[in-house]
TrEMBL record:
Gene Ontology biological-process entries: cell differentiation; secondary piRNA processing
Principal subcellular localization: cytoplasm
Keyword Lyase part of the UniProt annotation: no
GO molecular function, one term: RNA binding
Domain Piwi residue range list: 574-862
Protein name per its UniProtKB record: PAZ domain
Amino acid sequence: MVHPGTSVVASSAARRINHPDSKDMADRPPPPRGRAALLEAFKSRLTKPGDDKPALQQEEAPKPRGRASLIARMKELKIGSATVPSSEPVTSTRIQQSVKVEDLTPRESESKPELPICSFKGTSGTSIHVTANYIRLSIEKSKGVFEYDVRFTPEIDAKQLRYKILNSQMEQMGGVRIFDGGSVLYLPIQLPDVKTVFKCKHPIQQSDVEMSINFKKAKRFGECVHLFNVLFKRVMHTLEYSRVGKNYFDGSNPSLVPQHRLEVLPGYAIAVDEYEGGLMLCLDAQHRVLRTDTALQLMNDIIRRTPERFKDEVSKQLIGSIVLTKYNNKTYIIDDILWEHTPSDTFKTHTGNDISYIDYYKNNYGIRIGDHKQPLLLHLQKVHKSKSADMEERHICLVPELCNLTGLTDAMRSDFRVMKDVAQFTRITPAQRLHALKKYVANVENCDKARKILLDWDWGMHIENATIDLNARVLTPEIIIFGNDVRHQTDSKTDWTGQLSRNSVLGSVDLDAWTIVYAEKDSRVANEFAENMTRMGKSVGMVIKKPRMHGLSNDKTNSYVNACSNVITDSLKIVVFIFPTIRQDLYSAVKKFVCVNSPIPSQCIISKTLNNQKRIRAVTLKILLQIVCKLGGSLWTLPIPCKSWMVIGIDVYHSATGGKQSVCAFVANLNDTYSRWISMVTLQEGEISTQLKINFVKALEKHREKHGSFPDKVVVFRDGVGEGQLSYCEKMEVPQFEETLRQFELDTKLCYVVVQKRINTRIFAQGQQGPVNPSPGTVVDDVITRRHLFDFYLIPQSVGQGTVTPTHYIVVANTAGIKPDHLQKLAYKLCHLYYNWSGTIRVPAPCQYAHKLAYLVGQHIGKVPSETLNTCLYYL
């Protein structure tokens, strides 16, 4: 079990009274306490005196890197300028710098010392043997990696020209290299000079070009993640896999879904990194759903359906969408539609000649464009300016006829038949997934060119032919506690829907004043729903009186909004809306009114949902349970011995079009049974939040109001942070919590955990008939965990179809000193407490609550909801 934290320390006021200098304090006005003290400290310390920059943003000056670092080291050695003196004799192809590699100190020429492994390993639970989709990479001990910086004078913009110039001198550099086309060069040998300069010719203009190869450092293989990913990128191209987005797919072998005009491309997500078990390749089978219809076909369909709103509807569906051009297997985001331009228009090539789009595709790809009057699509690509770090926009015009639409539309996602047919190809079993991994390894071994890239060249790398074996642990199944202290032991399916329907809820709330708003054509459905609700209240331990019925003559948005003004009173507890159809504009208008203008809990239902007589009891029970939560009640809990702890969930919503502000949702528990929550929202720019202090202050005050003291420990589960944002999260978000605790003069300790769902790691157990999904509660905290992070993987769910995806937990800060076993158990317990699903979910409940809240505000409301709703789960 998770042990509770230490006892609450004496208050700051008590410490001041015992201070030696407190003899005159009786004559002074009493200092502010509680929230006033925190807000005062927050205002006074948010910015440093004499500095307009927020204190949280003060950072040390960055250390020199790259070329600047090399120049600084050369100055320390009194070498002088890093440039070649003009008086030095120059050979026809090469200039040798006077500084030799052996002149550098070991600290300068050798790799950094290997850092210790950051282990976060627990011991509780039952041990089992599992495997994962990781393949170990073996490398010959005699091999090495040396990193160089490449510069061209004058600057060369085009990647292909950079490659040609570098390749012209490869014989003098050993014949083997990894070059990213920019400035990073890896060689398996170390050149004799710190700086090597080559005199070359421009491949096209035949002008003189100077290429300098500057030694940066020798690296151990564990540091060469970039190198290995470039290597495997070459391997994928050698195996004739095309890159679509971040992953690689086999475009020559699609699975067709002709009844829905779709095709599914098989492929792989591939990445190399250093883990606790060494250097490994993470390889996962992926699928990409493409639509066989083109952007031009979409335009033709729209003009047939709605010719009067043709341009508006086309812009709505295409702008912001992603298209794939099969002639080069690249994806583009459509930024605009050029209605005045057609494929007959001309553009200038890199040689300065004018050519039409029709002739360009005919000459370069052998493609004949059929419709010469179709408008062009515009993609804006940001590229670096020549000889500058600034960015500029490059306009890329696309022909709709050649652009395949990607992804599924909202209508397709809501169509059960479409999703079922697509799932036959995308939802593969653990056995099929492992078979795909073995097939890839076999393809590499059987392809001479691919094997040569990894092994026969001087890198000396080899892929082992088996996935990695692991020791995992399965945590003890949890006990669900309902009303009247009824307890239920969960099984391997972690589903307690049946028990929930037969037992009363943990904290019931009587419903004596509520209203149903509906269109007159749904009057029968509305009356039946009211009767079912009043009858079913007893089964969950509630007293539900008959509602007030408010019928509308039509289903217009204004009618529902006006009805809100008429029916909402101070005594009303909740208003239920029955909509004839799914309409985003109607839903958004109603939710904005009841969350901002006249705050009151609300429930929206589609009449079709209530028309299914076979499932009417289950549907009514589901709605009733949501209403209980929205009224401030609770459904169930678990035995969690973490008393006086505050658990926080944070998630951020970003608009798909990028036009709206991001929404940061902040959810914290109100009691020790983790069945009541306070929910807050702030609007911000980007993923990383700079306004967490405000919400944390409110949560601390609410905790003191409910418990009489502040929490002993604070555990934050932060969802939505990717690998590249971990350092920013640690520098920008964690200090906000730590600074608030210091300002409040508390000894409360912090544990900050990043939760990642979108990962490619897969874990497999061995069943009687082959690989299967592991049991819920499976924890992996060794071998495949990151070498320099405190992290672990947890599988909280039972998946009947396809392969389960574990959740990755990364401990960014842990001044609370919470042990691995305790944090792993706490995370697993919280996955049982999401009241919109009577089973376990992928992330801790506060994270999922924050996700739902951020989505509601960002997608529909657009404003911060009223604080009067903060203590109820009004967004379920």
